[in-house]
Design a protein that fits this description.
The protein is mainly alpha-helical. 63% of the residues lie in helices and 0% in strands. The chain has one domain.
Length: 84
């Protein structure tokens, strides 16, 4: 199994096991699939990389304002990749 550039096997596996309806987990799956760096996501959302890692793992819920922005990004990214 090949590792996605910038994403550890551990993060990818944790994301796969996390609650699929969690906004941060959904964002994480798309970022991993499209190889979007955590640092880019953190900068875009105005949060730390650690916060983004926690979102991707389903360990922390984004704030309401961030969830709205995440939903917009997810809608745009889903048109570029097909996820199971």
């Amino acid at each position: 199994m090949s590792e996605t550039r910038g994403y550890s096997f551990r993060l990818i596996e944790t994301n796969k096991r996390a609650i699929p309806t969690h906004p941060g987990v959904m964002l994480g799956r798309l970022c991993i699939a499209q190889d979007i760096p955590v640092s880019d996501a953190a900068q875009f959302f105005g949060v730390s990389r650690m916060t983004v890692y926690k979102w991707f793992k389903g360990q922390e819920m984004p704030r309401k304002k961030q969830i709205e922005k995440i939903e917009e990004v997810i809608a745009k990214l889903k048109t570029k990749v097909h996820l199971d």
